[in-house]
Amino acid sequence: GEHLAAFRTQDGQAYVLDAYCPHLGANLAAGGRVVGSCIECPFHGWQFRGEDGKCTRIPYTEKVPDFARVRTWPSCEVNGMLLVWYHCEGVGPTWAVPEQHEIVTGEWVFRGQTEHFVDAHIQEIPENAADTAHLAFLHGPAILGGSDLRYTRSRLWDFMKHIWKAEWWPEPEPNEHCSRMLVQHTATIFGKRVSLMDLTVSARQVGPGLVFLIFEHAFLGHGIILQTVTPVEPLLQNVVHKIYYQKNMPAIIPKFILRAECIQ
Ligand code: FES
Ligand SMILES: [Fe+2]
To answer: 71, 89, 172, 202: least CB-packed within 10 angstroms?
Structure first.
């Protein structure tokens, strides 16, 4: 993995740098101090500019060598997240993360987040999004039973069935890095359709590690789950779900949706 230091300059711009100081290797993320548009190393006080990582000041000398710089990572702050671009061959960003209008305007507000560590390759998680065939079989019996196979088929939930209709397609240029899945969910209890459980979910795979799940419910309102997948090790992913939901809806609704989603 990579060790990074993220900081916000005094005028509010967020930057991401390599954590270790190129001087003698102190960790800028542990005790580094923000000075103007720079971060100051806690060891000997060298200051590095967020924008390009260049050392701009060494407290005990006038001359700052040109090679004194720390690696910077392309990053962006969008929808309440600070995202870092990673490319294994060092290619710069080829696409940008779209803003979700309702989050920016404050119409949808933050209602909680979950965090899991998943033993998988990062590719397996987006592949699962395209695998619409598993929805009805695996998630048919009972959503709230979760994904523990000892209980998903338990009789306890027999009275309730979930019906999924899903479509998946890749997006055309210039968004060929994205895909969409449209899911119509309905549920029956003792064989009767419960329209309260009707839910339309539009899932957009925005990039390999980022999904926007937009929910639409006839009277429980609209909202979004932002899912990020951050590789920690080659076969270990940190998966975070954050939910933003219509401000005028009681917080219990988005909390329920978030729980139902994240235990799948
Ligand atoms: S180790 Fe960072 S300034 Fe010396
Ligand atoms: Fe699933």
So the answer is: 89
Q: Which atom of ligand 1 is nearest to the CA of 41?
A: 2
- Within 8 A by CB and 6+ apart from 26, the residues are 20, 41, 42, 43, 44
pLDDT digits (tens, 9 = 90+) for 79-92: 999 999 999 899 99
**What value of ipTM does the predicted structure carry?**
0.93
Q: Average pLDDT of the chain?
A: 91
Cβ(46) – ligand 1 distance below 6 Å:
yes
pLDDT in tens, 46-76: 999 999 999 999 999 999 999 999 999 999 9
Select from 124, 71, 73 the least CA-distant residue to 234: 124
Q: What structural domains does the chain harbor?
A: 4-73 (2.102.10.10), 101-262 (3.30.530)
Alpha helices (runs of H) in the chain, residue ranges in sequence order: 101-104, 124-130, 133-138, 252-262
As a dihedral over the C-alpha atoms of residue 104, residue 108, residue 114, residue 120, rounded to 10 degrees, the angle is -60
Q: Which atom of ligand 1 is nearest to the CA of 25?
A: 1
Beta bridge partners of 216: 200, 222
Q: What single letter denotes the amino acid at residue 203?
A: A
Q: Is the CB of 96 under 6 A from ligand 1?
A: no
Rg (alpha carbons) of the chain, rounded to whole number:
22
- Residue closest to 7 by CA, chosen among 34, 25, 43: 34
- Ion ligand 2 residue ranges (Cβ < 5 Å): 264
